[in-house]
Amino acid sequence: MTLNIILLGPPGAGKGTQASRLEDEHGMVQLSTGDMLRAAVKAGTPIGVQAKAVMDAGELVSDEIVSGLIGERLDQLGGDVSVIFDGYPRTAAQADALDEILDVRGRKLDHVIELLVEEDALVDRITGRFSCATCGAGYHDRYKLPKVADTCDQCGGHDFKRRPDDNEETVRTRMAEYRAKTAPILPIYEARGIVTHVDGMADIDVVNDAIELILNSATAP
Ligand SMILES: [Zn+2]
After folding, report:
1. What is the pTM of this model?
2. Is residue 174 among the annotated active site residues?
3. Residue 168 C-alpha to ligand 1 middle, in angstroms?
4. Which of 54, 61, 69, 208 is least surrounded, with the fewest CB atoms within 10 Å of its CB?
């Protein structure tokens, strides 16, 4: 059975990891509009040519072009491939457009899966992270310090590094951006009863199992 799903989740929820698993284990294809746009421009498809002209003129790619891009990609994939929409739709108009794109191809949106994170727990998890500058081994200020102070357990190195993005302000800003981006579309899909929430703070395998359960469950008619 062909599935069409939207996977949502704020930075740190593990959306990329879960999407890759679905690709590897089920041959699903992740459709990210940015990637599709670059690929279409490069391949010089009809929509790619249109998009390039718009971008070369310094203008934003319209919803019509994005819709065309998704349609073009779905037609390339054929009717038997299950897809994961990533970063689209972002507005009510795009959600309507997606319904139409799917409908004319005998597809329908089966599930919207949102990976949830608890913001304070995410801040706690991310702000303490650091790693060995030599071998990359991961540590945490509160949960996983090296056994010997300032010495890497793996390689004995003494240099450690922190990513500049791993601070509370960045995490909270990204969460706020995520909420603003999904606010226009979540209620539309909730009204249809196709939204399911999964605890993104759980272990990767547990999250994967939860997603599998949703994909195997009966879908809306
Ligand atoms: Zn090391």
Report:
1. 0.84
2. yes
3. 25
4. 54
